[in-house]
Predict the structure.
Amino acid sequence: MAYFLAKTDPETYSLDDLEREKRTSWDGVTNAQAVRAIREMRPGDRVFIYHSGGVSGVVGLATVRSEPRDDPKNPKSAVVDLEFSARLEPPTSLAEIKQSKKFEDWALVRQGRLSTMPAPAKFVEWIRARYPKASI
């Protein structure tokens, strides 16, 4: 199983929306590096949902439920189906992630505008320690 992080603006599509709908097609990604990350996703992989804007941070977890496919609205993009898995409360803010000094080489810290990326194993373990009751 692989782990990824996907950013969304909560005013556009939030974790609340995903929880209510239960499942969604994750689309609208245009950056080539982020599209590559989507194309690497496989059913069963886990995705940290990250709210950008305002207090930016990891707010929840989703599970990949489809193989990646071309985005019908944009042939240079890709989509994948995600299913709501869990809320992570309280959210882990970007400030906390940066203050840990453990992830300075990760795209989340280095490339602030990148919307979708693989999550390194050391981040997954760090989050598991922060949320011991969550199934991460």
Notes: The two ends are 11 Å apart (CA to CA). Helices lie at 15-21, 32-40, 94-99, 107-110, 121-130. The longest strand covers residues 74-93.
